[in-house]
Design a protein that fits this description.
Layout: H1 3-18, H2 21-31, H3 37-58, H4 69-94, H5 96-103, H6 106-117, H7 124-141, H8 153-177, H9 182-197, H10 212-236, H11 242-248, H12 251-264, H13 270-288
Helix pairs in contact: 1-10, 1-12, 2-10, 3-9, 3-10, 4-5, 4-8, 4-9, 5-7, 5-8, 6-8, 6-11, 7-12, 7-13, 9-10
């Protein structure tokens, strides 16, 4: 298997793992009504970074003196600590569907930043793939539904801000994995992100330790989609351009919708099926000529 094909396969695997997030979030919120999605994010990255730290320490590969702290502080602040609250506030202001649609502008931001930072080409194929996957994501998110378009300037700016900061997650990962191992990249970014998010989650600190089932679900969340998906995605960035990876990762909402239909009987409407087809088409277009 050549390097590009391996990178593509790793991103697809990451998207499939991330698509299970909905299952975990639904289950955890049902187990603990006092939890918020931001609380789940906090424990997800906290437990993931702790698991990696223990593994690295056991293997004797924990060496903080060699870490590019400035890079990881920027990553944790912009790609984690600002992104998640901004996205949460965007959902509150304009609804889940519209906030998700605006967040899917991230691949466009990534393509622009990567062009200047990593000299990745802005090809016609790449631009077409961005247009197809964004349109498809908007349809899957339900842009055609009357209640989705809850627009106001404040909410739209928050949604676009979520897309911008989510693009930093991709850019910083690409920068970090060029200088550090995949596990170190995940551990330091999530560890620092945990510290930044701690003030917003103080009231929830004790909750998982009062409910064993909740704790086990949080650990499973940390290991399967968070560590598993993150490891696959960051590893892929060693083999393919970050702009290509970001666009390909838009397969996540397609897989999430499929999982929802299979596990919860959630019916996909025909515009959503069309949207899923456009996303898949965009990823196929991207493979016709890689930038």
């Amino acid at each position: 298997m050549n390097r590009e094909l391996l990178g593509f396969a790793l991103v697809v695997t990451a998207a499939l793992l991330w698509a299970t997030l909905g299952l975990f979030y639904k289950t955890i919120l049902a187990l603990e009504p006092n939890f918020t999605p931001l609380n789940i994010v906090f424990f997800r990255i906290a437990f993931t970074s702790l698991i990696i730290f223990l593994a690295q320490a056991f293997r004797g590969e924990f060496s903080p003196k060699k870490v590019d702290w400035a890079l990881f502080l920027g990553y944790a602040l912009l790609g984690i600590a600002i992104f998640y609250p901004v996205y949460a506030y965007a959902i509150d202001a304009i609804g889940v569907g519209m906030a998700a649609i605006l967040m899917y502008t991230a691949p466009a931001w990534v393509a622009i930043f990567s062009h200047f930072l990593f000299k990745e080409k802005l090809t016609v194929f790449k631009l077409a793939a961005i247009a197809l996957t964004f349109t498809g994501s908007a349809l899957v998110a339900g842009i055609y539904k009357p209640g989705t378009l809850r627009l106001n300037l404040h909410g739209v700016l928050l949604g676009l801000g979520a897309g911008l900061t989510y693009s930093f997650y991709n850019i910083f990962n690409k920068m970090a994995v060029q200088r550090h191992s995949v596990l170190d990249t995940l551990m330091y970014s999530m560890g620092l992100g945990t510290i930044f998010l701690l003030p917003l989650n103080v009231n929830a600190i004790a909750l998982p330790f009062r409910n064993l089932k909740l704790l086990l679900w949080l650990l499973a969340l940390s290991i399967i989609p968070s560590l598993g998906g993150g490891f696959c995605y960051v590893t892929a960035l060693r083999f393919i351009p970050v702009s290509v990876a970001s666009i390909t990762a838009n397969l996540e909402p397609v897989a999430a919708a499929a999982f929802g239909a299979l596990l919860f009987g959630e019916r996909m409407e025909w515009p959503q099926i069309l949207g899923a087809s456009l996303i898949i088409g965009g990823v196929v277009v991207l493979q016709l000529k890689r930038g």
